[in-house]
């Protein structure tokens, strides 16, 4: 029997980046509570698994010793560590007491999910605290301290697995692309709001890899206010064909839901059901194992609803749209799905034209390098 794991425990949701920071770890607890209310963990083929800390050797597989030491020092209030030297400070990347422990636990959760796939007892695993895809080898970036997708992928590669990574966060998966830009051992694909409009300002179609990695970094930038229909069209035009050509042993997906129409810091217009359709596409691939990671998402209840739908898709569960009373009465959330947004016709046309140009560029620049022909 194919088994699906959900890696979570309450320790992952207890830290606070700052009082005003948009990244609220409580969203992880809300997702767990909503899935629990639906009885998702009671299914015979589902395992709820506690997180475990990463080791220092794990994080050093990607991050520099100087950076890891700085995170440790800032976490314990060491005045000798200069935060600005590692991109910490007021704004996106505040440092706080216990930061190192929180980052080691979320990284360890993703590594634990990956190890469960390697040992063969599970074919699918979701680590919702992971997906922190911006962190660079020597500095924090974009709310991210340690880059757990990179670290988990390196662990999978060490096991002999062939890995494809697909990132559907609203922001470009720049840290993961950076880590594997010059290798053909990992295929990275990122669909995101164009860097012309949104942090981190990268992820354009011409970024296709270098050296042996040429053709193994793929980017599909999208226009602000892109809706479910256009997003799904672009996804289906690019991702399935590349995954079929690459034939990964493990599919790693970053499931950021800051693409949601209610997200306060981004500009795409997906609904929870559109997001779930994208996640469902991953389930159609032939990859023997699937590691899902969390990511962005700053409307907290949109996160809980979307990731609940995502896990249901992974586990083959069909959840009713009406939210269970135990959760509804506590948080005022009525339904999993959204009403479709109303987008001006001219804007909708612009999103389609932009997506078509991105897809055409990928077809021209990348597909021939994988022997894929477009009819």
Q: How would you describe what is shown here?
A:
The protein is α/β, with parallel strands linked by helices. The protein has a single domain (4-370), classed as 3-Layer(aba) Sandwich (Arginase, Chain A), CATH 3.40.800. The chain is 37% helix and 11% strand. It has 11 helices and 8 strands. The chain has helices at 26-38, 56-60, 65-75, 99-118, 148-158, 174-179, 228-246, 272-282, 300-315, 325-331, 345-365, and strands at 4-7, 46-49, 124-127, 163-167, 186-193, 217-222, 250-254, 289-293. Strands 2-1-3-8-7-4-5-6 form an 8-stranded parallel sheet, with helices on both faces. Strand 4, helix 6 (174-179) and strand 5 (186-193) form a beta-alpha-beta unit. Helix 1 (26-38) crosses helix 9 (300-315) and helix 4 packs parallel to helix 5 (148-158). The longest helix has 21 residues, at 345-365. The model has no long low-confidence stretch (mean pLDDT 97).
Question: Which helices and strands, and how do they pair?
Answer:
Elements lengths: L3 E4 L18 H13 L7 E4 L6 H5 L4 H11 L23 H20 L5 E4 L20 H11 L4 E5 L6 H6 L6 E8 L23 E6 L5 H19 L3 E5 L17 H11 L6 E5 L6 H16 L9 H7 L13 H21 L10
Parallel strand pairs: 1-2, 1-3, 3-8, 4-5, 4-7, 5-6, 7-8
